[in-house]
């Protein structure tokens, strides 16, 4: 993505939305993965925010910084070189357009398949066109983050008294797990000053459809989450920690006890933001429905049963900000 050099050049990005600035939020739950009470603290954070910061996570910093360096090396390539890995199908390289339904953002990205059972030609192209150390950095990082994700999901199961303990983590451990990995680059946008104090959207508001999302970014701000009262707040960046999002599928499996978090990213006027996200999804054929062990006696299911394939297909047909779970609710929200 080429950084614009003239303020008037923002005209060709007129489809990218803007929003009013928000305050920095200091109340994000911070959880030490080695804390004896981690299982209860994680559940509390997921109930209240659908989001938390994870420290003492055990993922070596050299894996994190190594992958960030490789990602920047790719994003700094000439545009023609990057375009060889696009357009996304949905895997591969994309710029500004997010999905196929009109969503736009101040972003360029790589979406990579993490399931060796599925052949993605675009993912192969990315690795073939770039040095072997890029593939190695991605694979090593994903392996470490997957292990951490299994542990988080098992702690959630412990905290919710879900039996068996691997009821959630087994869906990501499955060799047919439909997980993916995304590298995002939000270039600086000096022309933001021409927006009269408004912010340019890098990635529009949405929830993640999978079970869990594991985010790590550099120290550039931009991430915002929506609190339960509808207030948007900025999340202070921390390049040494991970941020964990509850996904829509986990919301359904816990019958709404844990809620997926609506979030977005804003462009920065001076600094580039690099983020890397592992999206942990179940196998395509997996049936998603509230787990019996989280339901109180006589409690009604809030959602219709569906397969991950059905929900994923529906999500890809929607706009980012749509209430994707609405059509799967047994009692649709009239205000959706």
Model description:
With 336 residues, the chain is of the alpha+beta class. Helices cover 26% and strands 23% of the residues. It has eight helices and 15 strands. The chain has helices at residues 38-48, 61-75, 79-83, 121-128, 132-160, 169-173, 248-253, 308-316, and strands spanning 18-19, 30-32, 51-55, 92-98, 103-113, 180-186, 199-206, 212-217, 223-226, 232-234, 242-246, 263-266, 273-280, 287-288, 306-307. The strands form three sheets. It has an eight-stranded mixed beta sheet. It has a five-stranded antiparallel beta sheet with strand order 1-7-12-9-10, with no helix packed on it. A two-stranded antiparallel ribbon has the order 14-15. β2, α1 and β3 form a beta-alpha-beta unit. α1 (38-48) packs across α5 (132-160) and α2 (61-75) packs across α5. It is globular and about 60 Å long. The relative contact order is 0.17.
The quaternary organization reads as single chain
Beginning-to-end CA distance, first to last residue? 34 Å
DSSP strand count: 15
N-to-C SSE string, H for helix and E for strand: EEHEHHEEHHHEEEEEEHEEEEH
Strand order of the largest sheet: 2-3-11-8-13-6-5-4
Number of helices: 8
Shape: globular
Radius of gyration: 19 Å
State the helical fraction. 25-40%
Mean pLDDT across the residues is 89
Runs with pLDDT <50, length 5+? 1-9
The largest sheet, given as strand count, sense and whether it forms a barrel, is: 8 strands, mixed
> Strand share of the residues?
15-25%
